[in-house]
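Think of the structure tokens as a kind of shorthand, similar to the way a musician reads notation: each symbol stands for something richer, in this case the local conformation of the backbone. In the example below we present two proteins back to back. Begin with the first one, reading the sequence and then the tokens, and try to describe in your own words what changes along the chain.
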Amino acid sequence: MKYWFDTEFIEYPCTIDLISIGIVSEDGRTLYLVSSEFDEGKASEWVKKNVIAKLGTEERFTRDEIKRQVVKFIGHDEPEIWAYYADYDWVALCWLMGTMMDLPKGWPMYCRDIKQLCDSKGNPKLPAQGDGEHNALDDAKWNRDAFYFLSNVERGNDEHE
């Protein structure tokens, strides 16, 4: 099964501090979790304005609780995991598990990247995201939509290039 995800995080030297994670499954299920443990004091002004200020009053969870819910949501059946510009998102997800060696059995040790898929298709213009950008669940839904858009594009034959 395919899963598309996104995280919001605070980046500072040697750390990617998870704020939230959103995941969409190929069968339409969604998961959105906000951490209770991020250090807002280390957030850049951009993150404060574009991510933290947009958080609602949703329940917050420890990283350990987020880990348990993510593992339960994705399961152990050799998932195919996708994100857009996935490097930091993948590290944030792996760190929830401990180390990459602690990933659940059956999970890949890599994330597939929608931006790389886009490049392989000649870098066509992707659909606009609209409202909700920098909300991890809305971004995960856009990742799914961008993936399906790219799945229908043949390299060099896209009218949007």
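Once you have a description of the first chain, move to the second and do the same.
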Amino acid sequence: MPGGTYVYRLIELENDGDRQIHGPFLRTVAALSFKDDNPIALGPDGVWIRWLSREDEFYRILRSTNLLEGIDGFRPIATGVPATPPENQYLDEGAGNIGMYMIQVEEE
């Protein structure tokens, strides 16, 4: 939930049966926001996506063309997109006629 602070750890199970424990990590969740009600705009070279960004963050952009697949239908189209506060823009030149986007904050 946005505003919540969560502690988690990752447990890596290796082929030889050993375990590596990473963490604990602390993360406060913040929802991404949009500047206006129209964060997506069709341009002559593709689809522009705009969102409000925050200092020192990097983003992953995913696109789905099949809403029946739910969350599993999203595929990454860009990773490591650096924040350019106050607003980020990304041009999806490979966009088709139908699509839905998801923007995620990448972990360090």
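Compare your description with these statements about the second chain. The first strand starts at residue 5 and ends at 13.
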